[in-house]
Amino acid sequence: MNRNNKLRWLIVLFVTVWAVFELTPPTSRDLIQEFKDLSSSTDPGFDAIVAEARAMQATNSANAFGNLRAAIGTNDLRRYFAGINVQGEDDPNASILNRVQRSAAGKIRLGLDLQGGTEFLLALGTNRVDQIATATNAIPVEARQRERSRQLTQAIEVLRKRVDRFGVAEPVILPVGTDRISVQLPGLSDADRQNARIQIEKAAVLEFRLVHKDSEKLLQEGIIEPGYEVLFETRKQEDGTKAKYPYLVEKQSAGGLGGKNIVKSYVYNEPMTGKPEISFSMDADGALAFEKVTRENIGRRLAIVLDGEVFSAPNINGVIPGGRGQITGSYTEKEAEALANVLQNPLETPVSIVAQREVGATLGTDSIISGVRSAVIGVIAVSLFMLVYYLRAGLIANVALLLNLVILLGVMCSIDTTLTLPGIAGIVLTIGMAVDANVLIYERIREELDSGKSIRGAINAGYDKVFGTIFDANVTTLISSVLLILLGTGPVKGFGITLTIGVVVSMFTALVLTRLIFDFLADRGMLKSLKMLSIVKGGKIDFLKYAKPAFILSWSLIIVGVSYVTFEAVTGRHQLLGVDFAGGDNILMSIKQRPDKQGEAVREVVTGLNFGDPTVQYQSAANGGEFLRVLTVFEKGDEVVAALKAKFPASGIQVIGVDRVGPVIGKEIAQTAVFSSILALFGILVYVAFRYDTAFAVGAVVAIIHDVLMTMAWFFLTERQLSAPMVAAILTIIGFSINDTIVIFDRIREDLKLGVPGTFKEVMNKALNQTLSRTIITSGTVFLATLSLYLFGGGVINDFAFTFLVGILTGTYSSIYIASALVLWWHKGKRPDKLTTEVRVVAPAGSPAKA
Questions:
Q1: In angstroms, rounded to a whole number, what is the distance separating the alpha carbons of residues 281 and 322?
Q2: CA-CA distance, 789 to 372, in Å (whole number)?
Q3: Tens-place pLDDT, residues 511-540
Q4: Which of 554, 560, 580 has the alpha carbon at shortest distance from 720?
């Protein structure tokens, strides 16, 4: 073994060990058992906590973290966990539980679509700095960007503190772009979901503003002095009704005092009335400013303003040192607690919920089962084919395939990538496409063996000649997958990350690991021959003979399909855009029996609510379950569900998933989808033009456009709706289509540079025949992997898989009859000068020379 191979083996060993370490343990352990195991001491009280948590878990297994927290109640955990340092923590119990949760958590993080929960997408509003900047343009752009970034960071920190009080395990709070925040709460109960929404969205912009000394008189006269505005205080009357009382208050906060100065807020019962009130204390700067304001304004009212509403406006009777104050009003205990919570965690910038997604725990469990099952079946199908077709070489490919999966998951765990349903699809697709590199290598080794080379020579030549093909094919796929990461959000971005990692890892295992194994066997004389089965051998098919009729027929089908789908959409017979693009509430409900056969009764109920014409669809699961999906206008889903339950009580309607997407978000997703697709096409055009020539680049891009249009036409003809994950499917088709085209183009370029005799058409046909076996095998293995997703994946995976199945067929076809044909026609049947090497034959002495 040479020194380079020793180094490569060490690299492979290191990467494998590192991946296994990052991956272990892959799944979560029992949280309550981990809580018990990590305790340093126990007593009857601790045993009672464990027993109560177990009992709650028996009836609500989806929220182990919430069950454990509820069982703990007001007990102090510090005496049971002496080994966990919680000194200085505001909530020691929460800190201990978070430590237990991290210890019990598996390395593979599941997305909400696999474990159930709620996701809120928040948009930052504008604060006073933004308003001033917009109105005056006095603040430089760089300063505005820095301030916006600071606002985003502050909002995330505040929301994290609020979310910690909800008692959910592993909440995820992430920035999305420059002005959005994703808050993911796994295992949130229905009862807590609405409270969480209120608490998250509550801005709690607290200000202390001075009231004009002649407020009442000026308001009666209708005079509003400059620098003042009218705000109202809501008071409950003796008869239970509420009335608003106006104040003329300064527009600016007195002394700059605000929510940022609040250190602590809590609820207490006023001794005389017993009513709940909120007490707060300020930091050092706030205390000094508060003392100064009260000293300089004795006799005036100081309004406590929360989100533009006066909560109380007490008189300043004297200097108030220490920065302490109270907010009084007609609050219930729950309202007072909520107000104290947001006061202690105020947002400098208001936020609004622009999208919401809810996934029931049952649906999450079903998604895991269907997703994993489809992945396993896809891997087994591909592995069996490789083993049967390539025999010993297929076994080596399967070893690489297994290591590919281990490294892929290890990298995902190391960068805390969340595994979603589209992510599982990405893994299966990556496995299918990873086989392509091995197929390219093996088919080239077969050619070298057929030419009479030794095993060692064929292996060396095979790997050397195929490197450029694999590199070009994977780079063009990476152009699409990287765009998914940069421009996508949520599941789409997760899919892009999975696909990108998978492409890189597959290159490593195919070019490094399999080569090491072949060298190892050859060095020890264990590889005397390399037998393989053959599908196509020495083919002489004139593919381009049928190029023109195939080209015309293909585009005719696209025109007819797109025209028909457009007509369906214009007449309202088919809703093309799903909730991700059109906006609205997409509600998935489980039902015991259908209210009617076609959904007309359901549509009539929803239409009667005056929410417009809804989309109603029945779905059946492989296990016999029945589902009802209704798409209605944004934030009206709860009213629709209530109306359906009231109208069809015997149907047993239960909500198991809701997607709420605001119209603005839908528009942005649509724009991003179009932009990312155009950008991918442009990137591929530039790269192919650089590596080949303009004709090849144009042919590749036109073939991609053909594949996308053909796939989308069939997608809509089967009455499916376009969703955000389908953007991932379209971009994946772009990657697959260009992958297949590049393999053919690379062989054409190689034959041209080798000076293969014949016309350009004959050279192209020869290249198409040379790569035909690889095309059939690669498309076939990817088709097998994707077919398992289609048959067993369910949900979003089913739509994704259907789209990609069509894309595989059209991508394989278009590489020959669209891309290759256009290159031939572009050059008018002549060899392109840029890629052609002139070959001269030196004749023997005495014979006329021929060129």
A1: 8
A2: 10
A3: 899 999 998 998 888 888 888 888 777 678
A4: 580
